[in-house]
Request: fold
Amino acid sequence: MAADSLTVSGRRFRTRADYEAALRDQKKIDTIRSQTNLNDPGQLYELFGKLQSGAYRFETQVGTDFDDEIYEKVENLKKQGTTAGSLHKSTKVHSGGEAKKDNSKKQDIKEKKSRRTPNFAEYDKDMQNQILAELKKQERRRRLVVVLASLVAAASLGYFGVYYFFSIRTNMEYEQLAELKGSDALVTNQSSNNFSIHKTSVRMPDVLDEYKTLYEKNKKLIGWLKIDDTIIDYPVMQTLDNEYYLDHNFNQEYDKNGSLFLDCDCSVYPQSTNLIIYGHHMKSGQMFGQLQKYAKESYGEKHSVIQFDSIYEKAEYQVMYVFRSQVYNEDDLVFKYYQFINANSEEEFNSYMKEMEAMSLYDTGVTANYGDSLLTLSTCDHSQTDGRFVVVAKRIK
Reply:
């Protein structure tokens, strides 16, 4: 199939897999449209609620476009003064008379049933014993159900208790770490260091005063990432592999939130062409849990500047590309963003830029030239198998 034909709802897709995912999204959208009258405010609000709750999950930008369409329709209804609450209230007013009739009918049925049901004392002894035995069985089943439900509830509460324990602990710990930025509580008298995660013979520059205390607490600290008006304000770690900080925090304790960490093959000094930072997509919003908000162009415009300081220098980056990708098999002949760390030539760099531009969800108007430094933020994307959501930015300061 020609590349030009990989188009669904006006969106062009680079690979056959993305194209087929878009077709699945379109089929799902067609089904929703056939079952929903989008001109009916009640049905529209109901559909909007399902989309917000995650009842419908889409894999591509085709689904995101549909989600945006429904969002805009609901916003227009709100501007007109039509809300889900007013619709519900109106329904109750109009159905009041019918409700009274239904209640009257139910009462008549109950009275008829009570007149037809014999009294327990009217049964003979054998029948009474059978009835009592059956009632005991029902009571035992009821108690068993109650016990099982209680165990399930206790297990669920325990799970959420542990989840929120880690969430609250993580918040508190990172707030304390943020307060240590600029502190000299643990700073030694050393003016320079030769530490490097890659064990090179290059003499490293001095650690910035702002990060010396944090660096003394944990020498795996490599920098700090911050995006204004978001929850993203965390230290960034680096080790000799990309495993340890998947489930450990800054204090090297087990933590399912993990930490933000720089790819082990990247170098902040001398700086790699592209610095790749990974983080979990936590439901609590912590780490990179809110990174996928960049899927909306309006959000990207409001949060276009990302600050990433290495422990040696401060820097700012501007968002350039936002796209969805995945972790591919080693023998798959496709662009793998997570392997783009250093560009060995201008031709290679431009090839990388062209690939990411084609994948980007929208045009930011920002471009890069050979010699520019890039920053890539990567997190999980559950809309596809081994999916990843990626934000790429160019250094501007």
Remarks:
- DSSP finds nine helices and ten strands in the chain.
